Amino acid sequence: MSTFVAPAPAPSRTLLHPARVRSCSGRELVLEQAREPVPAALAFSCPAQPRPGDLVLCLDAGAEGRFVLAILERPGSQAMTLAFPGEILLQTEGSLSLLAGQSITLAAGERLTSACAVAVHQSRETVLGCGELLLQGRVFQASFDAFTFTGRMFQTLVRHLVQKTFSYFRQTEAGDQVRAGQILRQAEGLYSVTSQYSVLVSAKDTRIDGERIHMG
Questions:
Q1: What DSSP assignment string belongs to 69-98?
Q2: What's the whole-number average pLDDT of the chain?
Q3: In order of start, what are the domains of the chain with their CATH numbers?
Q4: Taking residues 37-66, what's their average pLDDT?
Q5: Residue 63: phi, psi to the nearest 5?
Q6: For residue 67, with 0-12 CB atoms within 10 Å meaning exposed, 13-18 middle and 19 or more buried, which class applies?
Q7: Torsions phi, psi for 64 (to 5 deg)
Q8: Whole-angstrom distance between the N-terminal and C-terminal Cα of the chain?
Q9: pLDDT band for position 4 (50/70/90)?
């Protein structure tokens, strides 16, 4: 009767050990091992960017090289930079929240897109600066205690325009020209027109009606 003896597994040449970062350039690192500089690369799944002086977890994979898997300790500042070598997709079936004690900055080199069913923005102060602004929608509603618009030119193209105010004051420094098919004005009280020169031209009829008419 023969006896089968399984061969002993070959000793693994991989080794996990801590190391200090001497220098880093992108995803290429130089570690300190036994007081000697050794090259290493940042693992693909490690987004945290190491800094010189960090204590990292290094994987020695033999001929495959050395890889830094994680940052174990960072002396001094606890600031962190997450750097990814390619495109990133964050996907969740639930909710995603970003909370910051001070500020959140979103910057894109080319395009920033936001799409949702309902968007809610609340802030004490909002500043919007852009070279060109285009708004498209079905219904626009705005409510302000005070509204100030300053610009070089303001143009409105609408099919129907209805304005309702408690009091209305308009001042034009240069000319004020109105062109309409018909103009109807009704005042409950006084209707006064004051000018240095007045010209009234009618193609056909001119009618002035009142109980008393004073001229001169």
A1: EEEEE--S-----B--SS------SS----
A2: 88
A3: 15-73 (2.40.50.140)
A4: 92
A5: -70, -20
A6: buried
A7: -75, -15
A8: 141
A9: low
